[in-house]
Amino acid sequence: MKLAVLADIHGNLVALQQAIGDAKSQGIHQFVVLGDIVMIGPDPGSVLHIIRELNPFCWIRGNTDMWFEEISDDTDPETLTQRDRELYAYIQFAKSNMKSDEIAFLNSLPMKRTISIDALKILCVHGSPRSVLEMMDGRRPVEELGQMVRGVTENVVLCGHSHHPYIGQVEGKAMFNVGSVGRPLDGDNSASYGIIDLSAPKKPKFEIRRVQYSITDTVSRAKKIGFPYTEKYEKVLMNAANS
Questions:
Q1: Looking at the whole model, is its pTM more than 0.90?
Q2: CB within 8 A of 34, min separation 6: which ones?
Q3: Rounded CA gap, 136 and 131, in Å?
Q4: Cβ atoms 109, 60 nearer than 8 A
Q5: What's the pLDDT at 181?
Q6: pLDDT given for residue 100 in this prediction
Q7: How many domains are there within the chain?
Q8: Biggest CA pair distance of the chain
Q9: Residue 242: how many other CB atoms lie within 10 Å
Q10: 64 burial class (0-12, 13-18, 19+ CB within 10 angstroms)?
Q11: Does residue 211 sit within a domain?
Q12: Nearest alpha carbon to residue 148 among 119, 178, 123
């Protein structure tokens, strides 16, 4: 049995389609989704629809999925910092391109889940077991990573959020950050997702997959539909970096 693990899709339909196609071409039809589904991308509704059709084995929320509940429609953008004005624009765009029941569905998703496959227990989080905003990848000292997973009883910790893929062992647990499907920030602008091979559940194997997709098509879609801050968005996608 193999699982494909998707995280940080961020409304990038073209990247998502390529990642799913790559997984299915290997005979994988079971998916885990680790949050940050719709925000900061031109196709929030379509992305959500496709993922729901996958009927994920496990699905949790990320920090940007929480924005629907955290920022009110009554907010005056003029009172916000530049960064918060951008966030507000992304939220309003997503709301205008999604149905109310779709937003309610996202709001209903759990923040973390444990899945069991035979004797193997896998903890699914967006950031870390402690916080949806903490980042777990190879840029952090092992001591810090150890503190983040201390007390975790599961054998494997799956995560995303940092947009930097990572496979490692910390505190006797396998740690697997699958990177970002729709907004990589590690200098490689191809879509990133993960595969877990559970052929031998006591010894799972982890693989990072990188899949090329047409950034031009994503940006063209963003411009056509009126996605905010499109020029900045294009630079992030092309450079796979925030700056």
A1: yes
A2: 5, 6, 7, 8, 60, 62, 124, 125, 126, 158, 159, 160, 161, 178
A3: 11
A4: yes
A5: 99
A6: 95
A7: 1
A8: 56
A9: 10
A10: buried
A11: yes
A12: 123
Cβ proximity of 183 and 236 under 8 Å: yes
Residue carrying the six token digits 């411009």: 223
Match 């779709």 to its residue by tokens: 102
CA distance 204 to 157: 12
Query: DSSP alpha helices (H): ranges in 5-81?
Result: 13-25, 44-54, 67-70
Residue 96: which CATH number?
Answer: 3.60.21.10
What is the pLDDT at residue 164? 98
Taking the CA atoms of the chain, what radius of gyration do you get in angstroms?
Answer: 17
Nearest to 193 by CA among 169, 175, 176, 218: 176
Assigned domain for 140 exists: no
Angle at 159 between CA 154 and CA 165, to 5 degrees: 125
> Looking at the domain assignment, is residue 135 inside a domain?
no
* pLDDT recorded at residue 235: 98
In a domain, 130, yes or no: no
**3 touches 207 (CB < 8 A):** no
Q: Which domain holds residue 206?
A: 2-110+178-239
Per-residue model confidence (pLDDT) at position 162: 98
From the first residue on, what is the mean pLDDT of each consecutive set of 10 residues in the chain (243 residues)?
A: 97 99 97 98 98 97 93 74 89 96 96 94 97 96 94 96 97 96 98 96 93 98 97 98 86
**Reduced to 3 states, what is the DSSP secondary structure of residue 198?**
coil
pLDDT of residue 119: 87
